[in-house]
Amino acid sequence: MVRRLAGYSAVALAAAYLFFMYDETVTSGILVFILLYLPVSHAYLLLVKGNVTADLERVPAMGENGKRIRAGVTVRNDSRLAGIRYELILSVRDARDGKKKRKKKKYTGTVPAGGEETLWCEFVSGRCGSIEVRLEKLRVFDLLGIFCVGRKEDQACSVKIMPGFALMPLEITRKTREFQAESDDYSGEKKGDDPSEIYQVREYRVMDPLKDIHWKLSAKEDELMVKEKGFPLGCTVLIWFDIRESMTTSESFSAVAERAASLSVTLAEEKCIHMAAWYEEENERIVKYRVRDEEEAYNMVWHLLDLVPCRDIGKRDACFADEFRGLQFSSTVTIDSRGELWKDGEKPELLRL
């Protein structure tokens, strides 16, 4: 605005110089126009600045890593008199980066009287995580586009950038296949050793233990019937996220999300029910998600993108011990701040669970 006033002053001085140097009617008209333009422009801007509004109404909640994302800003003109010229300043940044890495873009247009239009900001994110789209400022220009008046908007929306869900090489051993974890759900396809749930009732066979005989049903059917116990569908594998603030960057967290997505969807494809868990420092609790299929794997990663890296490791480990006391898993896989997989303190070439 200062440069615009300086330019206006220079033009006004030049017109005044011409007015005194040349006795021409046209120079007088030019000088009068220039001198009257500033107060008329000021009055016009005061009249219309409150009639223009902008909203981040068309920002998608989700995007995919490496794909183009379109965020729309709707500009409305409540004035019934004339179209209004405007300028928007939008910024896009990774939520885990500082404000210094905020990228700002300017968009200009004209919205007709009583109408609205949508401006589209397109960007591509090369990392997984949360992207913040912020409407920072709105400027309204006068009829000739020389002077303007602006106001801060400070509207923000978050776009979660999801990783690709690709299968990864791993081996599920018999130990994990047959591991029985506590659960309220039971398999309808195979029997187990949980006496609290009956898988099926069948005729007695030689070598069946007497304790499994269903005596009431045997008396009714007039032949020995045996109860087969249920197989609980509990979480056999634990995926633990060891994400520390001192070791986490936007790039490394993107690697964490990609590795978590690949591991979880692969386990779901292998019909291996698992649990993903991480520490929520703000509420001093362990967040847990039970994953049985691809949809639940997707939901787990969606919430994982909100994870805040931990600072107090001692308190986190104490919460972990309390939360999982008495629970057993066939295998525990740790994903660290760099997105690397660890099992039993070692980084395996091929993950065997």
Automatic annotation (TrEMBL):
Residue runs in coiled coils: none
Record key words, sorted: Membrane, Transmembrane, Transmembrane helix
Claim: Cytoplasm is one of the keywords in the record: no
Residues annotated as domain DUF58: 200-268
Stored InterPro entries: DUF58 (IPR002881)
Membrane-traversing stretches: 5-22, 28-48
Pfam families: DUF58 (PF01882)
Protein name (record): DUF58 domain-containing protein
